[in-house]
Amino acid sequence: MTVGMKNALHKEIDIFELLQPETKLERQIIEDEEFRKGLFWGKPRFGHPEGMVVYHIKEVIDNIELLKVNGAIRTQLRTIAYSHDTFKYAEEKIGKGPDRSNHHSILARKFMENYTSDQKVLDVIEYHDEAYYCWRLQHLYNRKEEGTVRMIEMLEKLKGNTQLFYLFFLCDTKTGDKIQAPLHWFENSVDSIEMVNF
Questions:
Q1: Is residue 197, in this structure, part of any structural domain at all?
Q2: Does the pLDDT value for residue 6 go beyond 50?
Q3: What pTM value is reported for the model?
Q4: Does residue 2 surpass a pLDDT of 90?
Q5: Rounded to whole angstroms, how far apart are CA atoms 87 and 90?
Q6: Tell me: the pLDDT tens digits for 162-174?
Q7: Which of 32, 67, 137, 198 is the most exposed place for a label (fewest CB within 10 A)?
Q8: What domain range includes position 135?
Q9: Has residue 196 been placed in a domain?
Q10: Do the beta carbons of residue 170 and residue 63 sit within 8 Å?
Q11: Angle at which helices 119-127 and 144-157 pack, to 10 degrees?
């Protein structure tokens, strides 16, 4: 597919129609050119058969709609959904650094710091993949102690916002064809969360 064809396909996607922004913040970030670049990154792959990030965001938002949460939490979850994976394109372009500084979650947090001062939202954006990495260390790489230490550190960094993190992790994991084992492990490992099913 040529660059011209890819651009034409992107123009056919009505981002506002697909994502249905509800707040001034959601509309502002959608209109940001740096953010928009990331919406069209991605091709179908394991975990993300939907391909482009914009379709993944839509799936996460649809899951948020299934939760029975108050309006403030719903708004926070939607804000996280919009930005959590949108900077994968930049991570791919500059490469992953050994200190995580180029990880898409760090890039997303830095971007969102221009739009919100909600530390709960910023923290969940930054650590949204961390439970998966902890599970992977323990169950795929058999580095149980390292995975446990990393999980403890993550929970401390979340500063008591474990439920918000969990709700987002739930909504993010129940998309595409992602394996559900990390979610079940998290639910069975963390006592401070109130489990939700949908």
A1: no
A2: no
A3: 0.91
A4: no
A5: 5
A6: 999 999 999 999 9
A7: 198
A8: 3-189
A9: no
A10: yes
A11: 160
